[in-house]
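Open question from group meeting: does this chain pack into something compact, or does most of it stay loose? Before anyone orders reagents, we agreed to write out a predicted structure and look at it together. Recording both the input and the output here so the notebook holds the full record.
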Amino acid sequence: MHLNVADRLPDPVRPVSQPAQAAPGRLRMFSSTTEYALRAAVFLASLGGESASSERIAEATKVPPGYISKVMRDLVVARLVESQRGPNGGFTLARDPAAITVLDVVNAVTPLQRIESCPLGNPTHLNLCPLHRRLDDAIASIQDAFRKTTLAEVSTPGSRTASPQCGALTVSATMKAPAKSKKSPGKSSG
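Structure tokens returned:
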């Protein structure tokens, strides 16, 4: 049985698996939950205080409706979003978009984890080796960038989309993905 090196590493350094809709060959740095939470928060920031139902958020951000409910619950628990029940209810940001950082949203659903000890469990490594020190420095840089970036900076008020700059979120719903080939592995077509 062949074990991949990532199978032996603890979660903080294990690569995030690719969702089915990811383009082939693309490594995702953040979980789908993190991506979905950021889309939802940016969408709410674009509404200028107007509330939105979970269905509306799911549709606007292209997040599965069942998944958006979990994400919104996490954002409510973190006090980044408020929810109101009833016919005029929905979700709104709990604070001004300029007071909520990207790091706040990320930490609400899947906090970035720093590398604090040898991921291989080597007891002789009292300090991080050069590789893991660099990786931890990169995580620290990401945290710093996210801490300095607010939802107001990455949203467009009144746009009513998660991010007009993100082509994946503004593609017409009538467009379809190309059909997948049904060739069997190892068989040629000619």
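Observations to bring back to the group:
Residues 130-147 form the longest helix (18 residues).
The first strand starts at residue 81 and ends at 84.
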